[in-house]
Each structure stands twice: as structure tokens, then as C-alpha cells.
Specification:
This protein is mainly alpha-helical. The protein has one domain. The protein has two helices and no strands. The model has no long low-confidence stretch (mean pLDDT about 90).
């Protein structure tokens, strides 16, 4: 019998039920820990994504405001240039382009 045990490898020896249950519980604990970490990372990523959306929307609002202000300024500039052309025509001067 002693010889039979010597010829067996580690994989051939039976594991005790207690050892298997212990390893199983350790693996389950590690899995729960990993799931908790993944949930935490998922929450953080979702929060960052929401922050990026807020910044994106804020940028769009600022761009629209700037566009409106630019349109007002350009309309005013066009009015001034048209007036200058009319005055130059009245005075007999050629408008500069």
C-alpha cells in the first residue's frame, strides 16, 4: 500500500469535503469582492459620463449664446457700413470695398 501512494501524483489524491467547501467559500468571497469593486467602478464611470454630458450641454449653450451675439454684432456692423456707403454717395465719394 505504501508503494501505491508513492506512485500517485498530487492530482490523484482525493480532497476532503471540508477542504473543497473551504476553497469554495473562499472563491465565493473573492467573487463577491470583485462584484462589489465592479459595481463601484460602474457607478464611478456612470457619474463621470453624466459629468461629461453636463459639460457638453453647457458648451452647446455657450456656443448658441455666442452665435446669437455674433449675429447681433454683424447686423450692427452691416448697418454702419450701409450708412457709411449712403453718406459717401451723398457726398459724391466712391464707397470703398
Amino acid at each position: 500500500m505504501d508503494r501505491k501512494l508513492r506512485n500517485k501524483s498530487h492530482g490523484d489524491l482525493p480532497a476532503s469535503v471540508r477542504l473543497v467547501k473551504q476553497i469554495r467559500s473562499e472563491l465565493r468571497a473573492e467573487l463577491r469582492s470583485l462584484e462589489a469593486r465592479l459595481d463601484s467602478l460602474d457607478s464611478k464611470m456612470e457619474s463621470r459620463f453624466d459629468q461629461m454630458l453636463v459639460v457638453s450641454h453647457r458648451t452647446q449653450v455657450l456656443m448658441e449664446e455666442q452665435r446669437s451675439e455674433n449675429r447681433i454684432v454683424l447686423d450692427g456692423l452691416k448697418t454702419v457700413l450701409d450708412r457709411q456707403d449712403r453718406i459717401e454717395r451723398k457726398l459724391g465719394l466712391e464707397p470703398t470695398n
